[in-house]
Amino acid sequence: MDTKTLLRRLDAFDPELSAYLERSSKRQHDTLSLIPTENAVSPFSAYLKGSLLNNDIIDYHRAGKISHLEDMAAKRAAKLFGAEHAIVRIGSAASAARVVFFALARPGDEILSFNLRKKEYCRGERATYHFTKFGVEADTLEIDYDHVARIAEEKNPRIIICSPVSLPRNMDYERMAEIAKSVHAMLWCDLGQNAGLVAAGLVPSPVPYADVVTFAPSDALHGPQNGIVLTTDKLAELMDQAVINTGHVSLKKNVLAALAMTFHEACTEEYHDYAEQTIKNAKALEQGLHEAGAHTLAGPTENHLVLARLHESGGGTSARLAEAGLMVKEESFMTAGTLSFPILRLSALDPTTRSLKEKEMQRLGRVLGNFLRSHQTDDDVEKVRDTVDKLVEGRPLFSEEWLPDAEASDNNDGLMQNAMLYWNA
Description:
By secondary structure, the chain is of the alpha/beta class. The protein is 44% helix and 14% strand. It has a seven-stranded mixed β-sheet with strand order 2-8-7-6-5-3-4, with helices on both faces. Helix 7 links the parallel strand 5 (159-162) and strand 6 (186-190). The chain is globular, with a radius of gyration of 22 Å. It starts with a helix and ends in a 5-residue tail after the last helix.
């Protein structure tokens, strides 16, 4: 059955769900997202996840043994990031974090964490960990690694967690590894959306220095929602056993195939170009904000992030921008002490996926900057709406320029048409 016939029959059989699908499609095409965790899935990956591999189940009695698809995805992940060992069977980044805690920490252990990252995943007996925060200094908005070393020496943590997810500047992973080694702690990097830029070799990688690296293959890597753990040969057996002991025995061939494709795509010239364009777009967005007189924090950006500062009164900005079709998220940018700043944590990932370039991103930055400095009236919202409408008009959710340029065989023409249907609609 071809896709159009299937959608027609779905509409007749379940109009409520069909209407929801149509609304979601319209919303995604008519809005522009600067939220770091929102990005379109690669058509290749999406097709494989929804393919007939859904019908193929790996029996849970054999879940302790690695399957061909799991082996393929794990080896591709390890090769892409230069890791000694990769785990790909975990269903989410949150679950991956719990696996790491289960494997490496015990109740009562000291955890030194950047902005208390991963503390939210500690429940039950794991809530007895003692968390200590480190972060950027209030006066420089940069990490003082000597200060971190003094905290580590005082607290003697079992694990040190570093994370670039809220930093526009790159972290010094080598220095963090030195600090961890000096107190006999393990270093865990929560890589987040920087995973794609690391895979492309455009920002520093924590893999040579960290004992464990975790991230989701969605957002920056255009893959399915899942959790990935990269670790060393020394910890491989311990981590693998922790995965089994925490119940991760459900192996889905469709997801494993989508993951294998995700890591394969990330090795291509097209993906490198995408990652390179993402950084250019983030810099252009930052420039546009500055041209409008808006303030950014912790810059200039070196990755996909821009932190736009909000008025101290804050509140309601994201809702007003959503009315204009621009999706953003209000957050707090924390320092090592008690001081924090209200911000919009903006990412160039999704606009780049949709084929926006520097000129459009700079224009978007100016419009957004003017809005942040305005009274955010209905007229101000309408100005943003007009810009967003012009920017997204006729643009796909996933631009074909980022897909590998491989010649399709005649037998695969139908597959490709189905894979691209929703992204280019």
